[in-house]
């Protein structure tokens, strides 16, 4: 079914792949960003997520000029909101600005969407919420694989803003009854980045320790968002968004032996199964990985 979607942050690293994925499936997408997305199929609106009035206005606006011909008493309501807009990590803006933009912006988007009756919202959280990625020194997971019930315990402003956003989303879901699904997105890899980065990861797997060896292909992230939009009735949910395998060419057992010898392991793990678990998106959303790293780069160790 074709949906009318308001997408914030569609011009960012993840959004510029997720938006085309949604467009390819016949959805109408309005991209809210400070910089328009260069795709003739998308409708761009330059707006500031930290301005509550602009978010209410954007969600009650026409998607494009063509809708004027179909208008009958004003614009149609949006079917869904996908909220990706954010300061993307620490050390881009001062810490307080990172927290302000991400927390206030998310509040504004969720408030406008739920008060205007949008029943499906997908928002970007982060792998950093587990307190490992931007930790001072080395912090190890409490247990493996890292599932959605692992504690979120960060010290940095970016991850703190994302934990705040998860609590905000939970409250709006409880208040409105809308389906609000959050994605704890792993390290996003664009198609051209495999050749650049992955040989380095094979040579030095420790480069991936802070990411819990996770990666998410930007196009597979598009599928995850699409599966969220197609799956109704789950209420408030958090999902790890990662690919099926780790981002190095070691077996899962070898990674555990080298990097996590003292970390408890819960249950059985496949030979190359991701330590940043995506079981929940596979089981609840029907996600099927389409872009594993070994399709795009050769490992000298594995010969594939």
TrEMBL record:
InterPro entries: Epimerase_deHydtase, NAD(P)-bd_dom_sf. Residues 5-194 form the NAD-dependent epimerase/dehydratase domain. Transmembrane segments: none annotated. PANTHER family: NUCLEOSIDE-DIPHOSPHATE-SUGAR EPIMERASE, PUTATIVE-RELATED. This is Nucleoside-diphosphate-sugar epimerase. It comes from Salinisphaera hydrothermalis (strain C41B8).
């Amino acid at each position: 079914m074709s949906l009318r979607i308001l997408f914030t942050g569609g011009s960012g690293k993840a959004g510029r792949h997720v938006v085309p994925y949604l467009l390819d499936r016949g959805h109408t997408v309005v991209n809210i960003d400070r910089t328009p997305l260069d795709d003739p199929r998308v409708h761009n609106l330059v707006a500031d997520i930290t301005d509550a009035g602009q978010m209410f206005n954007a969600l009650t606006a026409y998607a494009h000029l063509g809708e004027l011909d179909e208008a009958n008493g004003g614009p149609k309501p949006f079917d869904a909101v996908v909220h990706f807009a954010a300061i993307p990590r620490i050390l881009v803006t001062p810490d307080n600005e990172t927290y302000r933009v991400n927390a206030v912006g998310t509040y504004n988007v969720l408030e406008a969407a739920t008060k205007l009756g949008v029943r499906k919202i997908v928002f970007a959280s982060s792998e950093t919420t587990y307190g490992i990625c931007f930790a001072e020194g080395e912090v190890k997971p409490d247990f493996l694989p890292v599932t959605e019930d692992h504690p979120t315990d960060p010290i940095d402003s970016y991850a703190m803003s994302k934990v705040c956003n998860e609590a905000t989303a939970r409250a709006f879901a409880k208040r409105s009854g809308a389906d609000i699904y959050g994605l704890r997105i792993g390290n996003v890899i664009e198609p051209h980045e495999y050749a650049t980065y992955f040989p380095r990861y094979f040579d030095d797997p420790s480069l991936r320790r802070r990411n819990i060896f996770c990666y998410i292909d930007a196009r597979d992230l598009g599928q995850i968002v699409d599966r969220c939009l197609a799956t109704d009735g789950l209420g408030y949910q958090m999902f790890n968004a990662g690919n099926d395998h780790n981002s190095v060419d070691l077996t899962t057992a070898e990674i555990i032996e080298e990097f996590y010898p003292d970390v408890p392991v819960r249950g059985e793990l496949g030979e190359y199964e991701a330590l940043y678990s995506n079981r929940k998106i596979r089981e609840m959303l029907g996600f099927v990985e389409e872009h594993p790293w070994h399709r795009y780069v050769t490992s000298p160790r594995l010969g594939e």
